[in-house]
Amino acid sequence: MNAEVKNEMNIDVKNIGDFLKSHGIRPSYPRVKIYEYLIRHKNHPTVDMIYNSLADVIPSLSKTTVYNTLNMFVDKNVAIVLEMNDSEARYDADVSLHGHFRCVKCGSIYDFNLDSSDFRPRGLDNFLVSEVQVTCKGICAGCRT
Ligand SMILES: [Zn+2]
Ligand SMILES: [Zn+2]
Predict the structure, then answer these.
(1) Ligand nearest to the CA of 142
(2) Which domain holds residue 128?
(3) Which ligand is nearest to the CA of 141?
(4) Domains in the chain: how many in total?
(5) Which of 53, 97, 126, 137 is most buried when burial is the number of CB atoms within 10 A of its CB?
(6) How far away, in angstroms, is 107 Cα from ligand 1 center?
(7) What is the pTM of this model?
(8) pLDDT per residue over 74-121, tens digit each?
(9) Coil, strand or helix: which one is 80?
């Protein structure tokens, strides 16, 4: 798995341009703002959530630009798209190994820690695992009270 990109969430917001460049992404203003949104909010946003938040800051922004930018981030391995079977895709700039808990009541998605030693798939000898996604569903602590 991607051990070499494990600490990407530690990058300074000021260095987003350099960070994107180092991954072969030309750091246009909308791209920097979209990436900054992802690492600041950590809320696993949809395209709409990012668009609604940035439309005032970047009047020329379109939902298509947000969508294309996020998919390019995924292509360049600086973000992942969560496999949640939701109607809308959700994105995450944390590409290190971690699990997601989805609350079926409020729809929030929470990160949880996962050690690579927790994950040893059996019966996949000679398979190449390129991506691991661990998803739990249930009711979050806030919705239970
Ligand atoms: Zn909840
Ligand atoms: Zn996450």
Answers:
(1) 1
(2) 1-145
(3) 1
(4) 1
(5) 97
(6) 6
(7) 0.83
(8) 999 999 999 887 788 999 999 988 999 999 999 899 999 988 776 777
(9) strand
